[in-house]
Amino acid sequence: MKIVAIQFLRAEQGEAEPPILASAFDLNSFSYFKRSTVRDMINFFSRTFIKRTPKGQRQSIQHEEYNCHVYVRQDGLAGIVVCDQEYPPRVAFALMNKFLEEFHKETNGEWRTSPNAANPDWAPLVKALEDYQDPSKADKISAIQKELDETTAVLSKTIDSVLERGEKLDDLVQKSQDLSSQSKVFYKQAKKTNSCCVLM
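Above: the chain's sequence. Below: its structure in token form.
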């Protein structure tokens, strides 16, 4: 899971190009000679997607192995997070919401009219790019999900791997004193039903 870029732009009326107000990039996964081209492409996609997203809406656009999560607020302040497809969209949008609001407050809303409000290397955005690379550190729900996934991975051993060598589940069911005779009959019927429906 990786975030490649976060950008804030001002959504303009009509066909005007949205100016970039703040940016943060992590292009280390690209070769040195491709980085400027990748940066230019991200700038192009950001402007294009912001122009085509109505105010007050969010959308996620897939391009090759990356997702571009876009949000344009009602006031025209817009954000885009470019990340790989594994990165959770909920975390990307939470990141945008938090830092768009912070940017709005820090500039006292001057981003709407003043060209001086643009801050290409806005420090909180650069730090957010680093902090949010691991979504489980930045988002409590993702942290819980990661913990559940790890637990599930531990518990997902097959019954066959738990049984001793040469032992069969059918034999254990017959020997079991914990199961009623009705449960044993149910187990056998379920096994027959499942075996007749196997597609080959």
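The mean pLDDT is 80.
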